[in-house]
Amino acid sequence: MRGLKRNWQFHLMILPSLLFLIVFAYLPMAGIVMAFQDFKPWDGVFGSEWIGLENFRTMFERDDSIQVIWNTFIIAALKIIFNLVAPFTFAILLNEIRKAFISRTIQTLVYLPHFLSWVILGGILLNILSTDGGLVNRMLTSWFGIEPIFFLGDGNWFRFTVIASEVWKEFGYGTIVFLAALANINPSLYEAAEVDGATRWKQTLHITIPSLIPMAIVVGTLSLGNILNAGFDQIFNLYNPLVYEKGDILDTFVYRTAIEDGKFGFATAVGLFKSIVSMALIVISYRIAYKVANYRVF
């Protein structure tokens, strides 16, 4: 209480954020009860029939549910891998540019797409990837003689498009972490290596890359908590019924099942399953990061 009285101004500053968190994050958690009900909006939470674990049993018996879980895992796993490799590689390449103005300009240019919403990027991709006069297909046809590819209508090409566009959008932002790690490397290591006759390539191979590996381990390990987050905004703005088999993920499946089909109880069960698995993976990934790289939040 003494600390509260002494720092009441700071507590007052965080009060709006705390209220926002309670209203929009904690109070809605009461809706989890719908996962155990045959929920009907007109009956409400208290009037809907209680069916126990039936929604969860249905989730694991439906073929489309299992397919959606696999789609989510595959897309999210590939995103995690390439969103780790691309910033890691780009940070090393950017570090080799000696002109500060050029490196900062490049960094700014690749960083900008992070601030664009998927609503905007989705519209751009729909236009440039169109089979009817889209820029990419026109280039493939005129330069290489390849028939137009239905990037957003073929399941396999859809996955490729989703992963590639995600990496393009986010790798500039992910590079910041590795550039910060590069800034912490002791310059005397490079000076000693240069005196010993090491080339730039050997310096990169024996100093730069080993110095970045601990950070890469931390980033990769913490990303495990997002293994079931394949990107609702992106998929929702790009997918269509033609690619449901390969492109539908848990979040879009929950949205479509609840909002379009009206199966609120089943959709809540799928969302709860995802949340429980994600929470477990987050706890495990933090423990691994602490054991392997001595990383801890608190």
Give a structural overview.
Keywords: Cell membrane, Membrane, Transmembrane, Transmembrane helix, Transport. One of its GO terms (biological process) is transmembrane transport. This protein has 298 residues and is an all-alpha fold. It has one domain: Orthogonal Bundle (MetI-like fold). The chain has helices at 2-6, 8-26, 44-47, 54-61, 63-95, 100-111, 118-128, 135-144, 155-183, 187-195, 200-222, 232-238, 244-247, 250-260, 264-293, and strands at 37-38, 49-50. It has a two-stranded antiparallel ribbon with strand order 1-2. The longest helix has 33 residues, at 63-95. The radius of gyration is 24 Å and the shape is globular.
- Rg, Cα atoms, Å: 24 Å
Q: Quick one: biggest sheet? A: 2 strands, antiparallel
For the secondary structure, the number of strands is 2
Q: Helix/strand-derived class?
A: mainly alpha
State the strand order across the main sheet: 1-2
Q: Name the beta content range.
A: under 5%
Unreliable stretches, pLDDT < 50, 5 or more residues?
none
**General shape:** globular
The separation of the N and C termini measures 23 Å
Membrane topology: Multi-pass membrane protein
InterPro entries: MetI-like, MetI-like_sf, UgpAE/MalFG_permease
Keywords: Cell membrane, Membrane, Transmembrane, Transmembrane helix, Transport
Family: Belongs to the binding-protein-dependent transport system permease family.
